[in-house]
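Re: the 188-residue chain
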Amino acid sequence: DTLDINGERVRLEGIDAPETAQSCKKANGEPWTCGLEASEVLRALIGNKSVSCDRVGKDKYGRTLGLCFADADELNAAMVRTGYAWAFIKYSQAYAAVEQEAKSQRAGVWQGPAMPAWEFRRRPDQTAAVSAPEGCLIKGNVSKTGQIYHTVASPWYGKVKVDESRGERWFCSEAEAIAAGWRAAERP
């Protein structure tokens, strides 16, 4: 739900997409990486199109809020319509009807149980995951058994916090973690 346009960070007004480190559940209860998929859907909606935003204000963190378009396609509504963002009704009713459409079609986050992003961000165990550098979601953890990395698929990912003062770090790929001498977390 955020774009970088010519060095300016613009948050899509009226919507809230899953956090990159967030998982949701399918109808059968199986987890899926809804946060990563939401990022990919936004990239796909943009493709090679020209992006423009009508700036509509600032949020409480000072970020620019915008109604954004990829050519003539409105990105805010498209993210909600595909089920890869919630209508952020705390701040705007603009996409409430679009959300009902996505919900009735069980699109994206509506296919099974999913915690809205605003609730996910309030969970203390998610603080480290939300602060990951853009695109670098692999957590390097130092433990008694050595240097271990955790991907978002790791069952411990949400509990692992990256403390750089202890030599822990973020990696952008598994290959990068392995090249640095870290090993994958063991699966239960």
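The CA atoms of residues 24 and 32 lie 6 Å apart.
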